[in-house]
Amino acid sequence: MSRLLSLAGLLLASVPAFAATPALAADIRIACYSDGNECPATKTLAERFTQQNPDIKISIDEMPYKAILESLPVQLAAGNGPDIARITLPGPILKYLADMRSNLKDAAAYEANFGPQLAWLRNGKEDHGIYGLPTQTTVSAPIVNKTLFDQANVPIPAAGATWDDWVVALDKVAKATKTPNAFAIDRSGHRFAGPLISYGAKFFDANGTPAVVDDGFKAMASRYVGWAKDGSADKDVWVASGGGYRDAFEEFKNAKIVMYFSGSWQVHRLETQVGDGFEWLIASEPCGPASCSGMPGGAAFVTFKGSKSPKESARFLEWLGSDKIYAEYMAMTSNLPASAGVQKMGVTYHLTPAGNEAMKAFTADITKLSPVAYQLQGFPYSSSLLNPIADRLSQVMAGQLTLDQAYDRITSDVKDSMAAIKP
Amino acid sequence: MSATGIGPDRNSPGQHASRLCGKAFGAVMNVPEVPMRWAQSRLSGGRLGWLFVAPNLAVFALFSFLPVVIDIWFAVTGGSELLPQDRPYVGANNFSDLLTCGNYTDPNSCVRDLFWYGVWNTLEFVVIQVALMLGFSLLTAVVLNRKIVGRGFFRAVFFYPVLLSPVVVALIWKWILQRNGVANAAMEGLGAKPVEWLLNGTWAFSWTVFVSIWAHMGFYTLILLAGLQAIPADIYEAASMDAAPPWRVFRRLTLPLLMPSLIVVFVLGLIRAVQIFDEVYVLTGGGPGTATVYLVQYIYTTGFAQSVRQYGLASAASLLLAGVLLVLTLIQLRGMRSGERG
Predict the structure, then answer these.
(1) CATH for A139-296+371-421?
(2) What CATH superfamily is the domain B113-341?
(3) pLDDT tens readout for residues B42-60
(4) Which of A266, A382, B158, B181 sits in a 20 to 30 Å window from B88, CA-based?
(5) Binary contact (B80, A398; C-beta < 8 A)
(6) pLDDT tens across B120-138, in order?
(7) Are B274 and A226 in contact (CB under 8 A)?
(8) Distance between CA atoms of A29 and B81, rounded to whole angstroms?
(9) How many helices and strands in chain A, by DSSP H and E?
(10) DSSP E strand boundaries for A197-317
(11) Closest Cβ–Cβ partner in A240, A256, A387 for B287
């Protein structure tokens, strides 16, 4: 009995000693994918953050974009998700996102800084939560191989030129320089949405209900399929794979196409992989009868409800989003800032003159995008509208569907997806 | 040596230690005897056997039976939720969705056209691939069974692709066949026009058949080779004494005696062909369009690779596939049993 009492006394005496030791470090696990070098850059900054905040330990798991799309929703449903993840499509994981407002030092300032893009992570207009940190603003636009244009002695189409004008010019260059294809668009409904909107596609009816196929959609879709069939557009990019996303950067890098319709996130790769192989530039958005629009976009670090370190996660993201650090992050990753404060302040990019010109051109393009493009980007289930476009038009290019059959299938695929989301 | 010098000394330290080890080993081995005797006294008849198979049954129930039950539950529920309790019951809707067609031979007339593209592509693949695989494996086994120069080397060559991961196999062939790949570079080097090996539906389908045969033929050749070597040599000697022509020997002796092995190869090949996914997914991704989308890829894409995951449809399709595989397995078992009896 006396031995038991001694043991209890010893335990009680040790309590203040334990209380005096520093709190155990909180772990933050980040699932990250890179368009260019976003994950290494995040790691560099995270190391600095943890030096300043020794009570927080951050580990970054870099993974392919496909893993974020396919594995993250399953991990979250199984209750085994990371604390933070870098995503582009919130729709499939919307219900797992954690509102950071109560954990932010100054939620109002954060909202003021990142407002428009924070809305893309919300589930409708009634939702006012702050679910993450936008890591960049992106905009899709034509990336042009200027060297090939110069060799062919063809002027690059000026602002206001339509897609039809562009394809005529690109075909001339391709023919003169024996380039296999005039242009390529990433195999992505998101990328193709810009040209569709330019030709009048509205994507939603007057009530805001998804209605993808309309006359504007048909006008551009039929053009693009025609260009793929006659060899102007690189059919391989869309047709060769049975589904999913595929970019055409390799084709552009190897000068197999004259123009590459992609987006601002490619600047880092253009700088590092094309280098001085040839001259490239960002041209004005090709137009249609409705507008001259690309698509806005962007990735975001989001936090999750299942996180054991919600306060620390919010602390890290608030630190990363602070003007000085965020500007540095943008410079490191060659991305356009999503922060109003940093947009005003300006970013000093460490780029070549071509890279700096590209950033200016992309920034100018953002202001000219169609409101339809912003409405589509703000729809949380936009991928359910966009993915069938690439899949079904690829089938038309492969000769398995007619355009009319593809329109019907796109309509039924969208309806089916929306029904599965809300059974 | 013993004190008499005839045998080992029973009292030497080595012998003593070995006797101790023997006793200890015996004691350890007798530990289960007490509970076993107790179990024998309590569990009469065949019930003791259940005790022995219980651990195996538990593992089977957990990792094989439970997933089937979960699969059935997913197949009769809808929505995009992953957790079973969050999924609304929809009865046989997923099955009727999959099986509703205006004309079964035209996938475009079906509610789930991609499922039917998968079904028809798989059927075509199975018929062509299994027939060719069987023919080439048999031919190769017969050739490798003869006393040819470098027989060991050739056996290794044909078996080598079996050792490779399917993903590696697909990547190697993709590297060769893609638009800017080795094959087209070689053709351009010879002054020929490049060919769209993976961009044309017929070509892409043919290559999936070829790559699959290339990767798996060695395994089936090995089974047939073992079957050929099990045929007694005196039968051939007798045939040669009767001056039977080689083709007749092959048709009347070799083939009937090899039939059990051929049935095994046929059914294993059939099951593997129905399950085709990994190599093709990496090689073509199902493209161009849907020319090489097979049934397992449809299940995977529907359940895991779409922005809105339709687990119910994927589960229903996997149950239909499981039904087909079950029939094939029963045929295999029947074939093996009749082979054993024969």
Answers:
(1) 3.40.190.10
(2) MetI-like (1.10.3720.10)
(3) 887 778 888 889 999 999 9
(4) A382
(5) no
(6) 999 999 999 999 999 999 9
(7) no
(8) 24
(9) 19, 10
(10) 257-263, 280-282, 296-297, 300-303
(11) A240
